[in-house]
Design a protein that fits this description.
Layout (H helix, E strand, L loop, with lengths): L14 E6 L12 H11 L3 E9 L9 H9 L2 E10 L2 E9 L3 E8 L13 E9 L2 E9 L4 H11 L14 E6 L7 H7 L3 E2 H5 L29 H4 L6 E4 L3 E2 L3 E2 L10 H9 L13 E3 L1
Length: about 290
């Protein structure tokens, strides 16, 4: 990571969680902000990137979900509304327990021919980690390859990753809605390294997982032949990673699932970038 010589102790490594919370509705279709906060708290992160949060929306009882989750985790937060309809908002947030400063929040480019599609945005916060300023970005790309490419081009442009102030170390988290080999992800990989590749460069790309990792997002057990079980079986999961510093002799120090550097930890990293069937979520991408 460019210009960074973080301490090699695990305590100096930030634990990052990126999580598409889907307006805090689980696979059992129950709205429960507290349950989402509990899932995140069990991972004990220093930085959390959340997507698909409702703020003041009637469909989720008017709760400011970003504020409520941050309150339960005792973290500061910044929220970016990708969509505003009168008093109702919907978007993404960055939460952290570390010293922070909002740098930018705003929309990503959209195809004028696709105005009926959901607006997308990004959020950039500077966080102080072990005495270093680390740039944290969070985003949620669209569903179509055409709009994903536009959004990736905008995110790597001069307002975001290409800005002079966005110098390393940089961490990008989010839900990219695209496979690792897609044009959008390849563009991002030209500026950042996916975390799974940094930690174990010989590992294959993460595979697509259809099974939610946490009970809060698993459907009730169904008998064989029940209709709709496949549809309910996959949505989102919290992805976590521990980011360390490059060091002489042992490469990039870090690991997934509690900082594990063993085979189990590497296997977790191969899986931690995914959510439902056709989509991909890199837990973190880093600029070196």
């Amino acid at each position: 990571m460019r210009g960074c010589d973080w301490a090699r102790t695990k305590s100096a490594m930030p634990r990052i969680v990126t999580y598409n919370v889907r307006r805090c509705v689980g696979l059992d279709r129950r709205l429960d902000v507290g349950r989402i906060a509990e899932v995140i708290a069990r991972l004990n992160p220093e930085i959390v990137a959340l997507q698909e949060l409702d703020v003041g929306r009637a469909r989720t009882n008017g709760v400011d979900q970003a504020h409520e989750i941050a309150r339960r985790l005792a973290m500061n937060f910044h929220f970016n509304a990708a969509i505003r309809v009168e008093e109702e908002q919907y978007g993404d947030a960055i939460l952290t327990s570390l010293p922070e400063r909002l740098v930018r929040a705003g929309p990503l480019p959209r195809d004028p021919r696709l105005r009926a599609l959901e607006s997308r945005g990004a959020l950039w916060v500077s966080v102080e980690i072990a005495g270093r300023k680390v740039q944290i970005l969070n985003t949620h790309f669209g569903l179509l390859p055409r709009e994903q490419q536009l959004q990736a081009r905008g995110l790597t442009g001069p307002r975001w990753l290409g800005h002079a102030d966005c110098a390393g170390p940089v961490i990008l988290a989010g839900d990219f809605n695209a496979a690792p080999g897609s044009a959008a992800c390849r563009r991002l990989a030209g500026h950042l390294d996916p975390a799974w590749r940094r930690i174990h460069r010989s590992a294959p790309p993460p595979h697509l997982s259809r099974r939610p990792a946490d009970p809060a997002h698993r459907p009730p057990v169904r008998q064989r032949g029940d209709r709709g079980s496949r549809r309910l079986c996959a949505r989102q999961r919290p992805d976590k990673d521990r980011v360390g510093s490059p060091s002489a002799g042992d490469g990039f120090r870090g690991g997934g699932h509690g900082g594990l550097k063993n085979r189990a930890g590497r296997n977790f990293l191969r899986n931690n970038a995914m959510h439902s069937g056709v989509n991909s979520r890199f837990a973190v991408c880093v600029r070196h």
